[in-house]
Design brief:
2 domains; about 240 residues; 18 strands; single chain; alpha+beta; 2 helices
Length: about 240
């Protein structure tokens, strides 16, 4: 197979991966705390021996997570929290600690604040946030201080990865930070609201159309190249 075909194949693989990413973004337009993801294309150029031109190959293996602020939606629930600006909530999952922007927490039977999936919300000391079942009022200040019946009880995040470049999506609205986490000094907590998905549907649909057309163009080239090789072999065989 010629270099042009190899190059086109790597491009097609990258476009398929990007289509999966865009489709996942569109599927989570209504998911609380979801952050859109993009794909990073990289070009690898290799010099060939002799007088031939260099070979350029494209790969798409890197991912970038959008840090754009999602719209805040008022819910009125004292346990629903949103972050304005940078930072994440820290939660405890069966697979270890994770970061999330989804603040649609609920209080379980034991009085702990958890995600709808049952992951514990952690405070500044890494302990589950506990709200007494008999609490008459629950307030969360903009700095994350949680108070019960007028008395400060604990402080909730926000947190950020020690190395922002190492933030990776674990699943859905959960993210992992392999380098560890640290407090965000200027993060603002808003009580009674949740952050909506930051996916821009118009941008994502337009990108899906663009990727699909690019893929179809590459497939047309591969089909034409395959037919060219077939015609050559048929002609060469007829001359023998």
């Amino acid at each position: 197979m010629e270099n042009a075909s190899y190059t086109t194949l790597t491009r097609q693989i990258g476009l398929l991966r990007e289509m999966d990413v865009v489709a996942n973004n569109i599927a989570n337009i209504s998911t609380t705390g979801f952050r859109a993801q993009g794909l990073i294309f990289a070009e690898h150029v290799r010099a060939l021996d002799g007088q031939r031109e260099g070979l350029s190959m494209a790969t798409a293996t890197g991912h970038v997570i959008s840090a754009q602020q999602g719209a805040l939606e008022q819910t009125g629930s004292p346990f629903h929290l949103a972050i304005e600006g940078d930072g994440f909530f820290l939660v405890q999952t069966p697979d270890g600690q994770a970061l999330t922007r989804a603040g649609n927490f609920v209080r379980n039977d034991a009085g702990e604040l958890v995600t709808p999936e049952g992951h514990f919300l952690l405070d500044g000391g890494g302990a589950p946030v506990f709200v007494p079942p008999d609490a008459r009022s629950v307030t969360v200040a903009r700095d994350g201080t949680l108070g019960v019946d007028g008395q400060p009880l604990t402080q909730i995040g926000p947190w950020q990865p020690t190395d922002p470049t190492e933030l990776t999506r674990r699943s859905g609205v959960l993210f992992a930070a392999t380098s560890g986490v640290e407090p965000v000094l200027d993060g603002v907590i808003v009580q009674g609201a949740v952050e909506a998905s930051n996916v821009d549907p118009v941008v994502q649909v337009a990108r899906m159309i663009e990727v699909q057309r690019s893929y179809e163009l590459g497939q047309s080239f591969l089909d034409a190249e395959d037919q060219r090789v077939r015609d050559f072999l048929r002609t060469a065989g007829a001359r023998q």
